[in-house]
Amino acid sequence: SGEQHLLGSLSETLWHNSTLYFALISGLLFTRVLANKGWAAFFKSKFLNVFFPYALMTLILTLFSFDRGGDFFQFEGAQLFIRRYATNLLLGTALLPYWYIPVLLCLFVLTPLLNFLIKAFPLSTAFLVGLPVLVSRSEVSVSVDSIIYCLGSYSAGMYFGVDYESKLRLMNKYRLIFLAIFAVTTLALVFFKESGNARVATMLFQEPIFYVQKLSLAAIGLVLLGQYKERLPEFFNHLADHAFAIFFVHLIFVSWFTM
């Protein structure tokens, strides 16, 4: 029915590009937690907590999906498996959401440069955060466009993490503006979805609008979390502690429940 279709469009509008929240939180955690521990500790943490589980899960998923044909333990079969594993690892193609991990790893590599720019040239923050508005991705994949798109959210998180409490007060002051931006962008995205020009809208308009929508909702969410953090159930702390573990396996369980 028309109502169900509209509800589906609204749901997709709210959930699509939610990886931007991951990028923002990663940037925020860097300046809030890891920045003062030195670069060695930062890269060690990302290797152990992000790259290693990603490489392991990619290996397991590649093994399960590999068509051995009886030749796996022969030279040709082993070569084919290694090539497929390397491709999955570089492009994040072992599972649909894994495209984001190589992009995030690129952001980690760029973090020293971003940190220098934000500290030495504060105005560069506005450029970095605003850059994705000029980028229109035609597909979700490991690409320069995707790196730039997520870099803006990551840089915003790094900026928010510096003197976090004062940033929260500033966001709270303008919370109604963020709410209005979120409402307008959401309505615009639903309109594009319902208008039947989804392909043209995606290539030209949707991705920048999604970016603005997600950043405005993130600002509202951070304000609310700041106001109610003392009243949040312990469950949320456990959820935050295991966020990346959940990310690596969530689509598997979602697929089981929707089959």
Please describe what this structure looks like.
- The chain has 259 residues and is mainly alpha-helical.
- The protein has helices at residues 2-15, 19-34, 39-65, 75-91, 100-120, 124-130, 144-161, 164-173, 175-195, 198-228, 234-241, 243-258.
- It has 12 helices and no strands.
- The two termini are 22 Å apart.
N- to C-terminal separation? 22 Å
> How many DSSP helices?
12
Helix content: over 70%
Query: What is the radius of gyration?
Result: 20 Å
Summarize the structure.
The chain has helices at 2-15, 19-34, 39-65, 75-91, 100-120, 124-130, 144-161, 164-173, 175-195, 198-228, 234-241, 243-258. It is mainly alpha-helical.
List the defining traits of the structure above.
259 residues, mainly alpha, globular
Secondary-structure map:
Blueprint: H1 2-15, H2 19-34, H3 39-65, H4 75-91, H5 100-120, H6 124-130, H7 144-161, H8 164-173, H9 175-195, H10 198-228, H11 234-241, H12 243-258
